[in-house]
Task: structure prediction
Amino acid sequence: MAKDHSKEDRLSRTGGAPLMVAIAIAILGVLGILIVDYHLWKPKAQPAVIASYNTTDEAARAAGARVAPTEPRL
Result:
């Protein structure tokens, strides 16, 4: 009877490093997408009832900016 070497070949096979690198890159990519999509580093926007200023105009004037309308184009 012939010996079955297929099991021994699978156990002694090397070269799994590229596969491990690809898996690590895939995991880091998924984590990066989750962080970017869910904005984990940014504070949540406040509704107008809680915010100090209701309009951009009010916030700009409070910061000391001069708010003027744009000149119309011909």
About this structure: The helical segments are 6-12, 17-38, 56-62. The mean pLDDT is 77.
